[in-house]
Amino acid sequence: MWRSYAAANTKTFTPKRKNISAHSSHSFSTTNLPNKLFNTNRRSSSFNSSFEDSNNLFDKKEEEKILKKEINIKNNLEMPPIKDISTINGIRDINNEKTIQNMFEKDSRNDAPIPQMPTTDGIEYPRAASWSSSTVAEIMRDKIGRQVFRCFLHESLAEENLLFIEEIEKMKKEKQPEKIRQGIKILLDKYGQYINLSSVAMKATKSEIPDPKALECSHKEIYKLLENDQFPRFRRSKLYLEFLEQLLPRSYAERWMTSFDALLGNQVGRHHFRQFLFNVHAEENLRFWESVIEFRQLKNKSIAMLNMSRTIQQQFLREGAHNEVFLPFGLRQRVEKKIREKNVDESVFDEAVKHVEQILKNDPYVRFINSKEYNDLLAKLN
Prior knowledge:
- The structure is a single chain.
- The protein has helices spanning 2-8, 40-77, 94-102, 125-129, 136-141, 143-155, 159-171, 177-191, 199-205, 214-235, 238-247, 250-255, 260-264, 267-279, 284-296, 303-317, 329-340, 350-362, 364-369, 372-381.
- By secondary structure, the protein is an all-alpha fold.
- It folds into three domains: 2-74; 125-239, Orthogonal Bundle (Regulator of G-protein Signalling 4, domain 2); 249-381, Regulator of G-protein Signalling 4, domain 2 (Orthogonal Bundle).
- α7 (159-171) runs antiparallel to α8 and α7 (159-171) packs antiparallel against α10.
- The radius of gyration is 40 Å and the shape is globular.
- 16% of the residues are buried.
- Pfam families: RGS.
- This is RGS domain-containing protein.
């Protein structure tokens, strides 16, 4: 009875993995073992142990194969180290690398001496403060103003633009064609790698028969760069503000205690007020106010005014913007509609500015007048 039961329930276990080991390739049958019903756990344990040993052997062999392949691939891909940067891509030149590096080093950009900041002798605060609302042409006509602007350009690695303009202004007075041709060559050799000229301007200045008018194209391009990019940054620069602060009379700062408009209208006062607002995480309202003031100085209904209105809207009025200024919903909608319909003039932000001024005046202004920052400034002006 027991024999027939065992024969009927005989099972053969054969591992599916091939060529594992001699031991694991044999079949296991319950008919080959006595006391079959009582030794099931021992047989199962023996089989599992043999199967695990064979698996470990297989894994080790596979790991050896993979390791050999990786070594071969690495050996095939290894290249000798590049000893000379000029060999990269077959065309790079070390001299070009040095030229690019020199463009960002103040001492190697040109042979002109490092400009020195002028003293405050012979100049009053109103004169220096007027530069913040002037043009490049106006500050260039002011001897001290030009020198302060030159120092800013030197710090910004852009002094070559001003030097280039000054050289052109000298050459425009020249009448002899040969001297003009030589002067243009020297000019481009000296500043050509630093200044940003269009191909049209370069072609005009390299003409075989040079005309003094050919310099006008180059002159206008660099002058426009100064006016639209570097001069606005100069008016907000630390260098200019520190120069103004040296000239600021104490009586001007004392007026801020009783006049919010006097504080906003003063370049130095607004600078210290901005620093105070930054420390209390509320500077976005003042930055919006300043951006609108700069916006109003653009030509009315111009493309530049439209573009700047879009920039202000994206930076300060767009919902979720990092510097979002919170306006009443209806007011925000009216401003956005005008910009969307391109109905933009100098008054497009007037209502929003009045709202922001009221917010600044209600709480931040009072806290600033009583702050340590303001009192330290008063003591410094003594």
